[in-house]
């Protein structure tokens, strides 16, 4: 098994040593370098091309949040914030996640701190989220050639009824917080029930749902097990240990404990597969910005079932990973910039 290659960025030599020592216990994780400033970190990223970066908030020369923003704009990769300022629910953690951090952990205080117990698994999950980016460009080129040979314009495939769907399912990851905030600020108050998987760690989704509820005309809630799926409502999958599914003759949210799928729990693929089975041609899937390929297989199942699928286009995506993976698989009917997705979904 190829080890997860990690770059540790922290201005404290002591903290870098503690993180490295903790990760030595993880046989499948390799610390390939360290940096104490943004300048050192920039050089190390270019030279080492790590799978995952751990990043502190307080750094000399350039704050970690500003450096995170540059990473996501110039060289997107999984970043795990490890800082005293990024505990669950903190404003700094929410800001980091909205920029594109994979996860935020509170900084351990000493060797043997229980906080270290979560670091290795978080780094594995972050590395898994990157899978699906490699080779996607070639597959997308092949898909483009096939589409053109069939006489279909690139990004738009021949389609299907525009009848209102019975349910809308949305998947997002890196950059998705801001994309969903933009999208739901104009979501109709009486629209079809909408189920959302946004890759977020446990402890963050309830606050995110509350933030969206203040901005959206629709009712936004964090999904609960056995919660009825109703019009005018948006259901955000809780971060953590369970997948969100749509099940039942009278459809309801089902939170299922199971292994990670496509590197995530909750997984967009799991949600989309359940929607395809339950709603078939009356379903609509939207894949927004995100790193990796979660949602591609599920979107294909929705399309095969006769449902409609929409992907965010490359130009408006912070990371064009998840939409690109789905497009390359032949799972996307239409691609649109973020600002046009509302119109594509509702026709107005």
UniProtKB/TrEMBL annotation:
What organism is the protein native to?
Aureimonas ureilytica
* Phosphoprotein as UniProt keyword: yes
According to its record, what are the GO cellular component terms?
cytoplasm
Which positions fall inside the CheB-type methylesterase domain? 158-348
The terms under GO molecular function for this entry are: phosphorelay response regulator activity; protein-glutamate methylesterase activity; protein-glutamine glutaminase activity
- Output this protein's name: Protein-glutamate methylesterase/protein-glutamine glutaminase
Write the gene name. Answer: cheB
PTM 4-aspartylphosphate: list the residues: 56
Q: Which HAMAP family match?
A: CheB_chemtxs
